[in-house]
Specification:
With 543 residues, the protein is an alpha+beta fold. Helices cover 26% and strands 21% of the residues. The chain has two domains: 290 residues, Periplasmic binding protein-like II (D-Maltodextrin-Binding Protein, domain 2); 216 residues, Roll (Dipeptide-binding Protein, domain 3). The strands form seven sheets. The protein has a seven-stranded mixed sheet, sandwiched between helices. Strand 5 and strand 6 form a beta hairpin. Helix 8 runs antiparallel to helix 10. The radius of gyration is 23 Å and the shape is globular. The two termini are 33 Å apart.
Length: 543
C-alpha cells in the first residue's frame, strides 16, 4: 500500500480474468445438464445463499453477493490473488495520498467502459461512492468503512478526490471492496437510483438481468431467480482480459448436497462444503479440495453490564471463562483448515495477531480466577440451534465450551434457541448474559477492531454492555490508533488494542473456521480471498 504522501503510479497489469461462480439450493438440481469444462462453455457452481433478496452492490448483504458483485463490477483498486496488504490498480491507474492521510486523489484509466460501451468517468465514480455513503436500505455500508465524514468530488473526467475529516490511511484497502463497486450513473438514475439515499428504488433493477449494461467487470448479470439460481454471462465490452467462460450458473444448493453434486459431476465447483466433511474426500481422485482458515469468526460475549448480569460483568469471572476453554479441541471440532482465533481480527488479514499471541487453556488459572470472582450463581450462555459458520455447527462448539466450563468448576447454563431469536435478544434488545455470535469483518483492515472497543459499533458494544466509559484506558488507546496517519503506526497500536481486548474485554474469540472449495478435475481450484471469498474471474478450466 502506498504510504501517505507518496505517489503510487503503477502501470495497470491485468492478469487473465476469467470466470465466475456461486450456487445454491435448487430442488431437482440432480437433473441439471452435465456442465461443459471447455473454455467458453458453462461453469456450474453450487453455493448455499438461502433467502438472498438483493444483489445491489451498495447494500450490506450476504457473502454470496460479494463475489458475484466483484465479478460484475470494478472498483478503484483491487488485490492480487489472496493478498490483503497491497492494493493494486484497477479502475484507478494510480492514486496519491496527502501526508495527513485525509485527501486521496485517484487517476482513472482512460480505456474502461461499461457493458453498454459507454466510458467510465469520474462522474460515475462519484455517483457510485456517494450512493454507498448514503444508501438507506438495510444497514449502511459507507459510514462503517471510514473513520469519519468523507466527501467525493470529480476534478475533470478522469480524476476523483476523496476528502476525510479524520486520517484514513486504509482508504486504498477500502476501495477494493465490492461494496465500493462503480455502476453506470446514467442508467442507474434512469432506474430509480440516487446518491442522496432518499427514495432510492434501484435495488430490484440491480438484482435483475435487466441491469446487465451497468456492469463494469468481466461478467454481467443475466438472470436472478430467487432461492434458485443466478446466471452470469461474459461482458464482451470488458476492458480487461476476457472471462474464461461464456456463462456461469450459480445454483442455490444446501451445503450437505453440494458434496454429492460435485462428486457426481453435476456441478464443477462447490463453495460451502463443511470442513468436517473434507475427510470423506480423501483418496477421491475425481475432485480437488482446498481448505483455508477464513475471515469468519465464531466468538461469544460475556455481558459487561451489571444491570444485565452481576456474574458476567465480573472481570475475574471473564478471566476464568477465557482460560477454561480448550481452544485446540474447538479447532479440531471445526475441521481441517480451521485455526484458533487469535483475536477479534481474523488471522488472514494484515494486522492480525500471530499464533503465538493467542490465549492458551490454563485450568489452574481459570479455577483460581473463578474462586476470586466470588460468583455464587450460574450465568446463561445462549447459542443458535440452527446456526453454522462455514459449515461448523454452533451447537457442537457450545457443548464443548460447556464441558470446559464444567471442568474448571464454573457454573453456567447453555441454552439453545433459533438463531433469529438469539440475534434479536442479543444484538437488538441487548438483554442476554452471554451468547455465541458468528461474525466477519465489515471493514477490510485493522480499523475493524475499532468497532469492538468500548463505545465502538453501537449495537455490538451495546450487546455486550461495553460503552465508552467501560474501559477508558482502552478507549483512549483505540482513539490513538484511529488518529494515526500511517498504516504501520495504526497496525502497531491496534495490536496492543487486540491484546488488551483479549485480556479484559467482553469478547471470547474461539475459531476461524475453514473455507473449503471442492472442484472437479475440469476446473482449477481458485484461491480463497478474505474479502470477496473467491474471484470468479480467477476461476479457470484446468490445464
Amino acid at each position: 500500500m502506498s504510504s501517505p504522501g507518496t505517489r503510487m503510479a503503477v502501470a495497470l497489469r491485468r492478469s487473465a480474468l476469467a470466470a465466475l461462480l456461486l450456487g445454491a439450493l435448487v430442488a431437482g438440481c440432480g437433473d441439471s445438464d452435465e456442465p461443459s469444462p471447455a473454455r467458453g462453455g458453462t461453469l456450474v457452481i453450487d453455493a448455499n445463499y438461502g433467502q438472498l433478496s438483493t444483489l445491489d452492490p451498495h447494500s450490506l448483504s450476504p457473502t454470496v453477493s460479494l463475489y458475484i458483485n466483484h465479478a460484475r463490477f470494478t472498483t478503484l483498486l483491487t488485490f492480487d490473488g489472496s493478498d490483503t496488504r497491497d492494493p493494486r490498480p484497477a479502475l484507478a491507474e494510480s492514486y496519491e495520498a496527502s501526508p495527513d492521510a485525509k485527501v486521496f486523489t485517484f487517476q482513472l484509466r482512460d480505456d474502461a467502459t461499461f457493458a453498454d460501451g459507454t466510458p467510465i468517468t469520474s462522474e460515475d465514480v462519484v455517483f457510485s461512492l456517494n450512493r454507498v455513503l448514503h444508501f438507506e436500505l438495510g444497514t449502511q455500508v459507507g459510514p462503517a468503512m471510514f473513520p469519519g465524514k468523507v466527501t467525493f468530488e470529480a476534478d475533470g473526467p478522469s480524476t476523483v478526490i476523496m476528502r476525510s475529516e479524520k486520517p484514513a490511511p486504509f482508504t486504498p484497502a477500502v476501495m477494493t471492496t465490492p461494496q465500493m463497486s462503480i455502476i453506470n450513473a446514467k442508467l442507474a438514475k434512469a432506474h430509480g437510483a440516487n446518491d442522496t439515499g432518499k427514495k432510492d428504488t434501484a435495488s430490484p433493477w440491480l438484482t435483475s438481468g435487466d441491469s446487465g449494461d451497468t456492469s463494469s467487470g468481466p461478467y454481467k448479470l443475466s438472470s436472478f431467480v430467487a432461492n434458485k439460481e443466478i446466471v452470469l454471462t461474459r461482458n464482451a465490452e470488458y476492458w480487461g482480459a476476457p472471462a474464461a467462460y461464456d456463462r456461469i450458473v450459480i445454483r442455490n444448493v444446501a451445503a450437505p448436497a453440494q458434496l454429492l453434486q460435485v462428486q457426481r459431476g453435476k456441478s464443477e465447483l462447490a463453495l460451502d462444503v463443511g470442513a468436517t466433511e473434507v475427510a470423506r474426500l480423501k483418496g477421491n481422485d475425481r475432485v480437488s479440495v482446498s481448505s483455508t482458515p477464513s475471515a469468519n469468526l465464531l466468538l461469544f460475549f460475556l455481558n459487561n453490564d451489571p444491570k444485565i448480569s452481576t456474574v458476567t460483568s465480573n472481570a475475574k469471572l471473564r478471566e476464568a471463562v477465557r482460560y477454561a476453554i480448550d481452544y485446540d479441541r474447538i479447532v479440531e471440532l471445526a475441521g481441517e483448515g480451521a485455526a484458533q482465533a487469535t483475536g477479534i481480527f481474523p488471522r488472514s488479514y494484515h494486522g492480525s495477531l500471530g499464533a503465538d499471541q493467542a490465549i492458551d487453556q490454563d485450568l489452574d488459572r481459570a479455577k483460581q480466577a473463578y474462586a476470586e470472582s466470588g460468583a455464587s450463581e450460574p450465568f446463561t450462555l445462549y447459542y443458535g440451534t440452527d446456526s453454522a459458520v462455514a459449515g461448523v455447527q454452533t451447537s457442537i462448539i457450545a457443548q464443548s465450551v460447556k464441558s470446559d466450563l464444567d471442568a474448571a468448576g464454573i457454573e453456567a447454563k447453555i441454552v439453545g434457541a433459533p438463531i433469529s431469536t438469539v440475534f434479536q435478544k442479543a444484538f437488538i434488545q441487548h438483554e442476554l448474559d452471554a451468547s455465541f455470535f458468528p461474525t466477519w469483518p465489515v471493514i477490510p483492515n485493522v480499523d475493524e477492531i475499532g468497532r469492538w472497543v468500548p463505545g465502538g459499533h453501537e449495537n455490538l458494544t451495546a450487546m455486550a454492555g461495553y460503552p465508552d466509559d467501560a474501559d477508558v484506558e482502552l478507549r483512549e488507546l483505540a482513539d490513538r490508533a484511529l488518529s494515526a496517519t500511517s498504516v504501520e503506526e495504526r497496525v502497531a497500536l491496534f495490536e496492543d488494542v487486540q491484546l488488551q481486548l483479549n485480556e479484559r474485554g467482553p469478547w471470547v474469540p474461539l475459531v476461524n473456521p475453514a473455507q473449503v472449495f471442492v472442484s472437479t478435475r475440469s476446473v482449477a481450484l481458485p484461491e480463497y480471498h478474505p474479502i470477496w471469498i473467491v474471484d470468479l474471474a480467477d476461476v479457470q478450466p484446468a490445464d
